[in-house]
Amino acid sequence: MPELPEVELARRGLARWLAGATVEHVRVWDARVVKPSAKALTAIGGARIARVERRGKWLRVALANDERVLFAHLGMTGEWMQTKGDAPRERFERVRIDVRRNGRARSVRYLDMRMFGRVVVAKEDIASWTELGPDPLADGIDARALHEKLRARKKTIKEAMLDQRLLAGVGNILAIESLWRARVSPRARTNALTLAEVRAIARGLGATIRRTIAAQKGERAAYVNAGAPSPFLIYDLKGEPCPRCKTSIERAVIGGRSTYFCPTCQRAR
DNA sequence: CGGCATGTTGCGCA
DNA sequence: TTGCGCAACATGCC
Question: Which nucleotide comes closest to A4 if you measure CA to C1'?
Fold first, then answer.
């Protein structure tokens, strides 16, 4: 469940469960998702959690009166959940953090099937966090500044949007859906984009992010529900009619990633 | 069995 | 030095 909207929902959940709580016990079921070591994470037992923040796809958990900071990334299949009190280990549960707040016990678990996600314990902010570009939801997008940055590059806009130093939190689906909304070809070269096109992309990102958060609020990410109708406008809908002009949606590999687009609405210039 | 999957990183090579 | 393509990571599903 890993792009900006899903991570924002994860942050809201973690903030509700953890803020102000004291860590009673940490269990690491699979040390491969924990850096630098399982020991470093279990050692936060006794600490009090101050707040949970997000930038892009990264989560940051600050402890109260403690130098240590936790960073978490959901990778491709990471997910945070909670249960009140104890419960059996879930199939893909990798880490469990038992906390207590106002006498109430809660078990916060990190699940990750493919284990591309990470829970990092650090003494200061890690580079993956500090080097992130502006967050479209938290900071908004300065279209003029973005336009300037893009003019200095020569990749396709689709590849550039996935660069977390340019914009934090944009993943493959978000890039695809936003470019469709903006009517910009994913193959467009960044140095050829007009300011108007960059503004349209910024609006497309905002609309896609807000709509996705609203749609997924209170439920599991729609794309994990097999059999459900597609929650996407064009992602993974090769051969289906474009929602705007009915042209058949095409698929191409750009920057090594599956890319969907409408050859009519998003005509390359 | 082969191909593909919402992400990131590291390596070889130009 | 920089950038690019691609494999690797680990697992499931079609």
Answer: B6
**Claim: this prediction has a pTM higher than 0.90:** yes
Question: What positions of A carry a catalytic annotation?
Answer: 2-3, 57, 257
Q: How many CB atoms lie within 10 A of CB A117?
A: 24
Among all protein residues, pick the one whose CA is nearest to the C1' atom of B7.
A75
- What does the buried/exposed string (b/e) look like for A192-231 if buried means 16 or more CB atoms within 10 Å of the residue's CB? ebeeebbbbbbebbbebbeebbeebeeeebebeeeeeeee
Q: What would the pLDDT profile of A183-236 be if each residue is shown by its tens digit?
A: 999 999 999 999 999 999 999 999 999 999 999 886 655 555 556 788 999 999
